[in-house]
Fold this protein.
Amino acid sequence: MSSVIASLKKIYLTALVPVALCVGVMGIIQEGFSIPLSPLIKVPIYFSPIFFVAAVLTALVLPILLRTLFARKAAQKDKVSTVSFFRFQKQLLFSAMITPYLAVAALILELQKFYVSATLLMAFYAVYYYYPSQRRIEFDKRIFRARYERETDNLPPRKD
């Protein structure tokens, strides 16, 4: 079980570190050197709601859809294997971790402030809610009746 959580945390951090670095560098350049960065690229006004809708899709709708599809598949089986549960958790992470990249793009593009703020809120939600904590993974494991026979039960090989 702990190897699943460790693998998911590695994926989570790998997806989140570039966003954090980008926001940090943007903040240092803008505040430390007084070079205004925002907005860098002018876009048509209709891009604002498009970015917000994309953020809602990746932070809320797509993970709920993936969860529903996995729940339907799990309901047909007696127990869920470790491999399929791990794959499901990875898909949740990948779908939710798109949102912070949309937030960085919203900061760079000339979008309406309301939509930039709403996209940032969606990114914060995705980063917070989909963090692969022991408690959340255990909860999902109980809901979907995932089985863990051994620590390395049918897990994909590690690529270190």
